[in-house]
Specification:
The complex is a heterotrimer. Chain B is mainly α. Chain B contains eleven helices and no strands. Chain B folds into two domains: 55 residues, no CATH class; 200 residues, Orthogonal Bundle (MetI-like fold). In chain B, helix 4 crosses helix 10. Chain C has two domains: 53 residues; 208 residues, Orthogonal Bundle (MetI-like fold), CATH 1.10.3720. Classes of the chains: A alpha/beta, B mainly alpha, C mainly alpha.
């Protein structure tokens, strides 16, 4: 209780600053299986402001996905506190306050593209007319309006992932959690989707927490990058990205961009991520 | 499908030729003993194709028997094979429907209630390694002792046999959604009923149809075997039994082919349902 | 009245125990819960039979069945010899062997494979036990006719599974052997057969149950006066249900034991397969 109170004051230092979307304080998660104890996260403290685009980056096993899953209330913290949207992670999940995009599209193969997008709306009890109009709107937003009657497996991998983004956006959550959403795609498709996602974030004004292991992707998309390191999973450094808000792919060739990328790489190296 | 047609026809033709050759060989001795002294080999060979009680009836003999027993008697006469097939099919069908309802209900229980899963799953799996059909004679006799005869014992055995594949298939199917698909439901904080209706049930359909096919065959076998112990007067099992008592080989073969046609019909109906669902899902289950 | 109370107490207590066991630590509950459930069913069965004085010709109590097993060991042994060792085992070996050889033969001819496979899968959907009376006519009343039924019943599942198994080799693995210039027998022995093993074991296990069913049902159509199917049908007709149950218990034990034995061999032979790696 005392920790909670301290946290609230820490998260809202001044009246004119909105409360943070996600605040983690000394968060630890330990898995135990077959007598083996794995420390997935150790004393992680971060605060993610509203409207920010924050990337969690690090090598495999650094706990970035675990952190994201904890925010989504898919993992339970072993110790520490976690505030999502001003309340508990469970409260945020029950309020359907966030949209989650997985590493794979996780589309249901027996539903058409449009009905996949409508799935969360059905579960939330939205009237059918509203469901259809939203599915149309968000499929249009990800550039897939003409594909609403297709089945997921009739689409390419990149298109499938765009459907899953439309699905996450369809109920207009304030917070979007993305777990290496483009990791399985080829680089050309990935570039296109990065550009697309950046545009979406700029226009929708939501908070995005984005897990990746690609440095250029993190730098290109983010307003801030959280660098993590494995065994045990922890935060090494937080890097502000001072690049123009308006971004296109050519930005990646500029010295400013390369400088940020270099800083991220240095931080990753400092985390002994190659052992 | 089309590129299967020619090879299948060729193989079928080979089977028929081999069948005729087998009839010639197996019936030859009997035919020679029956023939008069100055019969030529050719005469004897011709006789192997038209014996009254051949060791192996030639395909056309079976076809004739099948045709006569199906079309030459009114369908409600005990001489009609349609009548016997209907008796068996009805018992198998009733049993199958019960197995369908109970099997799915139990699978739903097992997937949702841990105590049920832990208590029953091992036994259900083990029961598939056990020759369950062996209980058929006893069930028929015991139910006969309490005055239950005819349809009920047969349907019971048919249902009992087809129950296990349906419930195991459905348990597998209801559990088939991968962790990511389930996590997705969790992020929507979907209720248990919603997870069932929107994820588990549709995902289970891919597993339901194959197990239904197995179950249908088992129901048919169960109904046929349940007709053996009491020397039932009606049904395909009764036809097999009387055929074997009186050496009526054509009758046995006709009953066998009828039983196979019933199995095909059942599989066809299930496949039809599967295709309908396939179409609704754009070609994939 | 007291039997009713006893059953009620058993049911309530039993459910409580099962719920508690099912919630226990994983390793304990996975073994203890089904065992407890089995014990509970047996106990309820016994109480039911004794308490209500259920006549022997309807349902003998487990204790009566156990007594029958103990009493008729020589008979059970003779039936085991006749049905399992003489009919099932040779039939299963010949049927599975022939199915496997046929699959290897088919493997070389896509034309034949396309022709035989649809017919083979149709044949597996058919009530093949029905050929029992024909086999009895051809091969006589003794074990030969039962073995013949078993051969036919086990042939098609093995054929279909083995063909699918031989077909399951990945293009990359096949290309690798091609790049070595491997001959057909080499690729068969070093790649395709090992790769097909999980499928083959699948058929072996399925067939062990099918073979037992085939032999027992075939005995319903006539046998010398020995054999599990013979015993079940005649003793059922004579209302000696305890002996019938004893035979059924043996059939269940044989079925599960052979399945378990095959599963153990499978584990040892195909330990590399993903389904066995943790």
């Amino acid at each position: 209780m005392a920790a909670d109170a301290a946290l609230m004051t820490a998260a809202a230092p001044a009246a004119d600053v909105q409360p943070a979307a996600v605040v983690a304080r000394d968060l630890s998660i330990v898995f135990e299986a077959d007598g083996q104890r794995t420390v997935a996260l150790q004393n992680v403290s971060i605060a993610i402001g509203r409207g920010a685009f924050v990337s969690l980056i690090g090598p495999s096993g650094c706990g970035k996905t675990t952190l994201l899953r904890a925010i989504a209330d898919l993992e339970r913290p072993t110790s520490g506190t976690l505030v999502v949207n001003g309340g508990s992670a469970e409260r945020a999940r029950l309020d359907r306050a966030y949209g989650y995009v997985f590493q794979a599209p996780a589309l249901y193969p027996w539903r058409t593209v449009a009905r996949n997008v409508m799935l969360p709306l059905e579960i939330m009890g939205m009237p059918p007319a509203e469901r259809r109009s939203r599915a149309g709107r968000y499929l249009d937003l990800v550039g897939l309006k003409d594909f609403h009657r297709r089945f997921p497996w009739q689409l390419s991998g990149g298109m499938q992932q765009r459907v899953s983004i439309a699905r996450a956006l369809s109920f207009e959550p304030a917070l979007l959690l993305m777990d290496e959403p483009f990791g399985a795609l080829d680089e050309i498709t990935r570039d296109g989707l990065n550009l697309h996602l950046h545009g979406l974030w700029r226009s929708a004004g939501m908070t995005v927490v984005f897990v990746t292991h690609s440095i250029p992707e993190a730098v290109f998309l983010s307003s801030r990058i959280v660098v993590m390191s494995p065994r045990p999973g922890r935060v090494i450094e937080e890097i502000e990205v001072d690049l123009p808000a308006e971004r296109d792919l050519d930005l990646r060739e500029t010295p400013a961009f390369l400088k940020v990328a270099h800083r991220v790489r240095e931080a990753l190296r400092a985390g002994h991520s190659y052992d | 499908m089309r590129h299967h047609a020619v090879p299948v026809l060729v193989v079928l033709a080979v089977v028929v030729v081999l069948w005729y050759a087998g009839a010639l060989l197996l019936n030859f001795d009997v035919a020679r003993n029956l023939a008069d002294e100055n019969a030529t080999t050719w005469d004897i060979a011709a006789a192997t194709m038209s014996q009254g009680r051949p060791v192996l009836p030639a395909p056309h003999q079976v076809a004739t028997e099948l045709f006569e027993s199906v079309f030459m008697h009114p369908v409600n006469s005990p001489k009609s094979l349609v009548y016997h097939a209907a008796v068996t099919a009805f018992a198998a069908g009733v049993g199958f429907v019960f197995a369908f309802v109970l099997g799915i209900a139990l699978a739903i229980g097992i997937v949702h209630v841990r105590t049920l899963e832990r208590s029953l799953m091992l036994w259900i799996i083990t029961s598939q390694t056990v020759p369950v059909l062996a209980i058929a004679p006893m069930v028929v006799v015991v139910l006969g002792n309490v005055g239950l005869t005819g349809l009920l014992p047969k349907a019971l055995i048919a249902g009992y046999l087809s129950f296990f594949p349906i419930s195991t298939g459905m348990v597998k199917g209801l559990r088939s959604p991968d962790p990511m698909q389930r996590d997705l439901m969790r992020t929507y904080s979907a209720s248990g009923a919603q997870v069932f209706r929107k994820l588990r049930w549709p995902a289970a359909m891919a597993f339901l149809f194959p197990s239904l096919k197995v179950a249908a065959t088992l129901a048919l076998v169960g109904a046929i075997v349940a007709e053996l112990p009491t020397g039932a007067q009606a049904g395909l099992g009764a036809r097999l039994l009387t055929g074997s008592y009186y050496g009526q080989t054509q009758q046995i073969w006709a009953a066998l082919i009828m039983a196979s046609l019933l199995a095909l019909l059942a599989v066809g109906v299930i496949d039809g349902a599967r295709l309908a669902m396939l179409r609704a899902r754009g070609g994939r289950l | 009245m007291s039997a009713g109370l006893g059953l009620l107490a058993l049911a309530l207590g039993g459910v409580l125990v099962l719920v508690l066991l099912a919630r226990g630590p994983d390793r304990v509950s996975a073994v203890a819960t089904p065992l407890a459930f089995g014990a509970l069913v047996l106990a309820a069965w016994e109480v039911f039979c004794r308490g209500y004085g259920v006549p022997r010709i309807l349902l003998p109590a487990p204790s009566a069945i156990a007594a029958a097993i103990a009493r008729s060991l020589p008979v059970l042994a003779a039936d085991f010899m006749q049905t399992v060792l003489r009919s099932v085992l040779p039939g299963w070996l010949i049927g599975c062997g022939a199915g496997l050889l046929a699959a290897i033969a088919l493997d070389r001819s896509p034309f034949l494979r396309r022709g035989v496979l649809p017919l083979g899968s149709l044949a597996s959907a058919m009530p093949i036990v029905g050929i029992a009376p024909i086999m009895v006519m051809w091969f006589g009343f003794d074990w030969q006719s039962k073995a013949a039924v078993v051969v036919v019943m086990t042939f098609f599942p093995m054929l279909i599974n083995a063909v699918a198994g031989l077909d399951s080799t990945g293009a990359m693995e096949r290309d690798l052997l091609r790049s070595y210039g491997a001959s057909y027998p080499q690729s068969l022995l070093k790649l395709r057969l090992p790769n097909a093993l999980p499928f083959i074991f699948n058929a072996l296990k399925l067939n062990s149950t099918l073979a037992l069913i085939g032999a027992i049902v075939a005995e319903f159509f006539g046998t010398p006066i020995v054999g599990m199917g013979f015993r079940i049908s005649t003793e059922a007709a004579r209302m000696n249900l305890d002996v019938v149950w004893a035979e059924i218990a043996m059939a269940a034990a044989v079925g599960s034991a052979s399945f378990a034995a095959l599963a153990l061999v499978e584990r040892a032979v195909t330990f590399w397969h993903p389904s066995f790696r943790s």
